[in-house]
């Protein structure tokens, strides 16, 4: 599941990275939540970046108020879902531009700790589907999108209890996902876990768990900053929980020199972050 992601890059960085033109206003967002707008490139208009709201509203819906959870789509089940199968069959594919996403580690009902995940690319794209709904009174279009998910890699799966992650595309796969000539099977073959050695993760403030509202906005750029992990409860046998070891776990980033990578002492072969 991916219920929160980020796009904090500057406008010129986003456009330069993909060689595209922006339609409308751009504003960096460290806390894009369901029903917020994201920046999308569609198979119908692959040369522009446009804003759409997160959470598919079917074209035949009575209103633009979501009637069910439609922000994520399981890639394994997409062709079995009457809402999503027609979109994929019609090649209503899209790229969801991002530079990170959040998942919460559920240690208990009262202890949920958010982590931010990034890749070796500063800006990357999720595989998505999009839909267009027309207001019956004004005839104005309302465009929405959803993010496809797949089985999680270890980087995400160690944190996310449901073992899911968004489908992250390689740069070379982005035009393939937008291609109207590819078969459904060819498109779905792209929906696999992103490699662990191309991802990083780090703890962020619990403030990132709060959804932004008009009365209580939560769009401060500090949300993406790393924080030290909090101590964890000892085991039943009074053996310190090894997950309480402070520090930020970072995976290999191909754009950084090895000397810049902080290494943790793991001589005993245990996972210093998630071993019990």
TrEMBL record:
One MF term in the entry's GO annotations:
single-stranded DNA binding
Catalytic EC class? hydrolase
Q: Could you tell me which InterPro entries the record lists for this protein?
A: SRAP (IPR003738), SRAP-like (IPR036590)
Q: Where is this region: Disordered?
A: 213-235, 248-276
| Feature: compositional bias, Polar residues | 266-276
Enumerate composition-biased segments (Basic residues).
249-260
Q: What is its EC number?
A: 3.4.-.-
Biological process annotations from GO: protein-DNA covalent cross-linking repair; proteolysis
- Name the UniProt key words of this record, in alphabetical order: Covalent protein-DNA linkage, DNA damage, DNA-binding, Hydrolase, Lyase, Protease
The entry sums up its family as follows: Belongs to the SOS response-associated peptidase family.
Q: What is this protein called?
A: Abasic site processing protein
